[in-house]
Amino acid sequence: MDTSTVKVPSCFSRAIKRGFDIVCSVVGLICFSWLMALIWLAIYLEDRKSPLYKQERIGRNGKPFDIYKFRSMVVDAEVNGMAFCTPNDPRLTKVGKFIRSHHLDELPQLWNVLKGDMSIVGYRPDRKIYIDQIMEQDPRYAWLYAMRPGLFSMATRYNGYCDSMEKWMTRLEMDLDYMNNYSFWRDIKIIWVTAYAILSGKRF
pLDDT, tens digit, for every residue of 159-171? Predict the structure, then answer.
């Protein structure tokens, strides 16, 4: 991967970021264990199907990993093929619609952070089929592989879920800006503004 036009964080910065990830993921898993248990139970009681969902995503260095989420859609959501999920998608369950709109379906990714698949803050990881489409439009997406994908991202906070190529292009620009202007304090700001938005009930 050509990184001549992208700024890669130093080894020291990466070590600090990884240490922060470990602490935050451990604390998060402990503090939100009660909430995760309630969500797990609510999903199970709705349709008696597995509350957890895993899906292959592409992460650091272009390597695939399994991302974990609370299931927000019916179990056979992609039986007729892949399709973007919209706010009123009929495939969403009642519980799933609520947890997705408030980003609570992402809580199991704290485990991905602890494992080292992801970081607390970074770009959101995508499926390979979507990445291939994005890179046809803008091959700079590959530059993101120099860092771990994240649970939080400024692009998700201000650009929302991507359901069109236009939104993906906007998100890519924001992710590259984050990468080229990385700082620990910027991570703190992203966590704060995202957590505040979620706790105050804002939808994005």
Answer: 878 778 898 999 9
